[in-house]
Amino acid sequence: MALIVHKYGGTSMGSPERIKNVARRVAKWKSAGHQLVVVVSAMSGETNRLLDLAKSISSSPNPRELDVIASTGEQVAMGLLAMAISELGLKARSYTGAQVRILTDNAYNKARIQSIDESRIRSDLDEGMVVVVAGFQGVDERGNITTLGRGGSDTSAVALAAALKADECLIYTDVDGVYTTDPRVVPEARRLHAVTFEEMLEMASLGSKVLQIRSVEFAGKYKVPLRVLSSLTDPLMSLEEEAKSGTLITFEEDSKMEQAIISGIAFNRDEAKITVMGVPDRPGIAYTILGPIGDANIDVDMIIQNASVDGMTDFSFTVHRNEYQQALDVLNNQVKAHIKATDIRGDNRICKVSLVGVGMRTHAGIASKMFRTLSEEGINILMISTSEIKISVVIDEKYMELAVRTLHKAFDLDQPV
Ligand code: ADP
Ligand code: ASP
Ligand code: MG
Question: Of all atoms in ligand 1, which is nearest to the CA of residue 185?
């Protein structure tokens, strides 16, 4: 008997028929003798609907109340699934994050899980129940409802699997695994049988929304065996077949079946670029510009300082688009006059495209091939950043799909390894 955590996303829970299929799949695993904890997302579109509803009342909704509202989507889904499982003759019980006591900090809208009390879940499992838990939510020390950021149900599932020391965490979604890039953008994208934890961490942080980044961080920290697979297959397919489908996140590079240099391409349109023009090139300038940005709790991603000409330089960096206006305001109000910058320019029509692969460590020439491929398409690179296993470029967002498709082909990602 194994303890398995399943997670079903919005599309997988998207209609009563799909919820009944989830119940059939869960019942199949339970009947094979396993203990099952099932984490659910809200039905597809529901979280957006709830957030829009809040914005129709207030243009800058109170973050605490926003979490009270946004968390209800998962509460509905968990009740529906528990009912559907009971209809199949099994015992099931649902819990909100607060009922389990998934304790988080109090950073509303992007709270972090601090601890999980597994006692209630364990005693239900011992009684033969299937336990259904609402994803995406927790509760802070004072009993306030919190949510974990968009896509946060992945994190709820992996954190529960870690707390319960589950044998495996299966993330069921609307694609049958992790692909070389988003298959909705590049139909030739190929499913990876395995991807290393490090690569998955980079892909998630660079924009592949198939797993929320924090879920991958948890999996790495607690070594949770993790697999991404489809919820849209026949729910009654054999367990053996299902257990080896999808994509396994591995912790050992050696055990990786495919040894491609590049494993995948990630992209995102979530960032904006800001340039502070004509600043004196002297020690402390980066701190003078980025200090107030950090004080305003705005995260900075890429940073570039140009070579100085006559003691003057330009300083560029990127921030999340949601925080773009706030960052511009901080610079204009607190920094510009202070450092006598000639201008502050912003561009929120950019995107970041990244190549990811542990094979880069041992292969030279990847960056130059990337830059050549983009230049042959006439795509101008605005910023570059690299690490041991990734290269990211910032380009004009109108070239995003062209860049991803061309790079996918140039690096033979559509070819079997
Ligand atoms: P869920 O609701 O199940 O959490 P998400 O929409 O959050 O599902 O994540 C699944 C989606 O992630 C897929 O439909 C796909 O469009 C997108 N995606 C982005 N990059 C990748 C990738 N490299 N491999 C697979 N899917 C990806
Ligand atoms: N329902 C939440 C969202 O749409 C959480 C999730 O789906 O993982 O972001
Ligand atoms: Mg998701």
Answer: 16
